Structure prediction request, 140 residues.
Amino acid sequence: MFPASTNDQYRGAAASAWFLALLAVGSIVPGCIHYFLPDGGAEVIAGLDLGASRSLVIGVFAWMGATQIAYGLAQLAIALRYRPLVPLFLLLALTERTLAAIAGWITKAAGAAHHPPEHYAVVVLAPIILIFLVLSLRRT
Prediction:
């Protein structure tokens, strides 16, 4: 299932690979919360009032959780065994967080009275991911 490791071909900063592993945990854990908590964390963590759309919102949270778990496992495999792909996965993480920040603060939820914790996390994480992306592209 897993080809031989390609870590010996990676020339970027080792810190970038370890940072990707942290991002993986940061995808897997919330993914498990969204998938396994009865409300997906929508009420308990995000503080959303689900109202008449309760089952729809919980279903969407579970769907997102399933994607986060799979994506996080892929990030972890890259960070631990296939490091030449670290820059690609950091670029994907940066794209994801940047789009989430735009949606959370500028377009989709700009007028919202409440912002869930992830809206704040993406604003902090995007520049940090960019730093580690640059480090992953530099030859060491």
In short: The chain has one domain: 10-137. Helices lie at 14-36, 54-81, 86-105, 117-137.
